[in-house]
Model the fold of this input.
Amino acid sequence: MMQARLVPLTDMAVLKTEPWVDQTRRPFVTAEGAYIPVREGYPSTHMLPSRRRSGRGYQKLGDVVIFHGSRPSRDEVDDIKALEKPRGIFWISRHEGAFREPKISRIEGSGGEVTHQESGIIYRLDIERVMFSQGNREEKTRISKMIHPGETVADMFAGIGYFSLGMARAGAQIHAMEINPVSFTFLEQNTSLNGLTGNIRAENGDCRDLLSGVYDRIHMGHFEAVTFLSQALRHVHKKTILHVHMLGDRSDEIKKIIHDSSLKANITMHKVKKAGPRTWHLVADVVIE
Done:
């Protein structure tokens, strides 16, 4: 098997100097993009067989396989069945609504709840009801490495524990908030499965109503996080760090909101992954001064 990341064809030329690219292997190019081989020790988003195949990449969560984008062909499905022998094969065409629920079709087999392990963390989820983005693996690692043991963290959009679990394992005390009751159920399960009940206080509801006190760090893992920023800034002190996710650069909006809140901050932008043509998933690290 070959670890890979899916990138737009237009980005291939700029990847030659990236440290995560395995230069000893050739990319696998399809109509949906290029699957770039990933070196050992770096996070990947897809798995490809070492041999060249007619199909495209896929995600494997637990014992099921998921295709994204266009519906897979019969040959692609049969290829994956022979290679992975999964319990179920699914196709997700998109995610919908405020809860980012998957528009998912079961192609073969059975689905429902799966147990997936990533970077030593156990995630339990129902793939037919809850999204899971493997493309955020490197960002989860980056944030967890920034944690200082004992710091207090608000995770305003906790989901099933995507970021909360890693930050808690690094020693933080997490106030994890999630509005989707299905995701919240798995957040509680995953907290217990990973032995982190002493580090995570989970609440089901709108994070704007649940924020309380002040925090050393506030994680805002939602593409519309900027619209929640003014509420988050009511719960900061000097040196609080906020991680604000977004699609495209919205740093000017962030600066205005901070100014209107009579605060000063240092802002550093980080790229997470390509989210579409000319669109990046970005995170602004905002340090209150």
In short: The longest strand covers residues 265-276. The radius of gyration is 19 Å. The chain has a mean pLDDT of 89.
